[in-house]
Specification:
single chain; signal; DUF4398
Length: 120
């Protein structure tokens, strides 16, 4: 009976162990989040996706604070969210830059057509 109870407790506790992060996992997640944030900044997110990059920066600060308090699981989760926010900022930035480039090309084509129309 006692063995059965211990097995039941162990079986209930095991799934929770998979969710618990250790320091190493949290540090890896923090590094990945920082790298994603830097990539978004290089892609022009400050100019083209300011809201998203601000959210990512705030998330990174939160993840770092959680790591300082040794809350590895929450730090890892916050880092993963930060990484997603940074990816979104980078994607929005690239989209905005592509749209601006497309507009420039369309304007150049329109100008060329007008010039050709006048000359012909």
């Amino acid at each position: 009976m006692k063995t059965r109870a211990l097995l039941l407790i162990a079986a209930l506790a095991l799934p929770g162990l998979g969710l618990a992060a250790n320091r190493h996992d949290a540090e890896i997640a923090l590094t990945a989040a920082q790298s994603s944030l830097e990539a978004a900044e290089r892609a022009g997110a400050v100019e083209f996706a300011n809201v998203e990059i601000t959210t990512a920066r705030s998330g990174l600060a939160s993840a770092q604070g959680l790591a300082e308090r040794r809350d590895w699981t929450e730090s890892m989760l916050a880092s993963e969210k930060t990484q997603a926010d940074a990816h979104l900022a980078e994607a929005r930035s690239r989209q905005a830059r592509a749209e601006a480039t497309t507009l420039e090309v369309e304007n150049a084509v329109r100008t060329l057509r007008n010039e050709l129309g006048r000359g012909g």
